[in-house]
Design a protein that fits this description.
The chain is built from 10 helices and 5 strands. It is mainly alpha-helical.
Length: about 270
């Protein structure tokens, strides 16, 4: 990483000898082994073992009771959903035997010496990061992005088509952000980012059968107001921690903000929203 920063002349651009980046480490499975072993994989394995037997039993019984044909179709549909569920989480898993099997995707230049870069818009961040990633594309992954004019129906339609094509091809989805890192609305800060997941990725989060009509009705009744409020408070505390660190304030002052974020993380908000 340091070599990529040097080769791209990022140190000179930032006029700094250190940098704080917001990144995602991949594959997802490298960070969620317990979740895979204890929740996702057992659910998929159990359903793939049980549902074919249930379907076979129903098909055998249908010879004497034609009224259960609808039940057979229902179980076949459930089995198809399970297969989609397994395929969905497997897309984000690959064997990791050494550091060379990992990938790192940076997407924000949070801070460097003397600066917290929240005064720069997201195009500045992506441009600088794109130059860094280009030096080592084997390890560093540049995030694809596009700018959307939300007041232009054509631009909206193009973004929608891009998202649909990406998620239908197995992509996780996109993160929608205002062009400025910090954007104020009429009352308060605008949500800094909103994740728009694809249909199949949401199957990992909500379960294999979340797309059944009765489950969608229940899910649509949920509200994300508490989650959004929590995200804004954590965002503000995170920026304040960086500001204090850059100003070389005592470490306890930085830790005040960090412990505040940890305290907010303990609030009972459904993380799946």
């Amino acid at each position: 990483m340091a070599e990529s920063l040097s080769a791209s002349r990022a140190w000179e651009s930032l006029e700094s000898e250190w940098v704080c980046l917001d990144c995602e480490l991949m594959p997802w499975s490298a960070k969620a082994q317990d979740l895979l072993r204890q929740q996702y994989a057992p659910t998929g394995s159990a359903a793939r073992a049980a549902l074919p037997q249930a379907i076979a039993a129903l098909e055998k019984a249908s010879g004497t009771n034609p009224e259960i044909e609808g039940l057979i179709d229902d179980y076949r549909s459930r089995f198809d959903m399970v297969l989609r569920y397994v395929d969905a989480y497997r897309r984000y898993c690959w064997p990791v035997d050494s550091l060379s099997d990992l990938r790192l995707a940076p997407f924000h230049v949070l801070a460097s010496e003397g600066h917290v870069h929240v005064d720069k818009n997201h195009l500045w961040h992506m441009d600088l990061i794109g130059g860094i990633c280009a030096v080592d594309p084997e390890f560093l992954v540049a995030t694809p992005f596009r700018t959307v004019d939300v007041s232009d129906p054509v631009s909206q339609a193009e973004a929608t088509r891009w998202w649909e094509e990406m998620t239908e091809a197995g992509g996780e989805g996109m993160v929608v952000k205002p062009i400025d890192f910090i954007q104020r609305g009429r009352r308060d800060l605008v949500q800094p980012a909103v994740k728009c997941r694809g249909r199949e990725y949401l199957r990992i989060i909500y379960g294999p059968e979340y797309t059944r009509p009765e489950n969608l009705v229940r899910l649509r009744q949920r509200t994300s107001a508490s989650k959004r409020s929590l995200a804004l408070r954590e965002f503000a505390l995170g920026i304040e921690a960086l500001e204090r660190f850059v100003r070389s304030e005592p470490l306890r002052r930085v830790h005040e903000c960090v412990f505040g974020v940890l305290a907010l993380e303990s609030e009972p908000v459904d993380p799946r929203l």
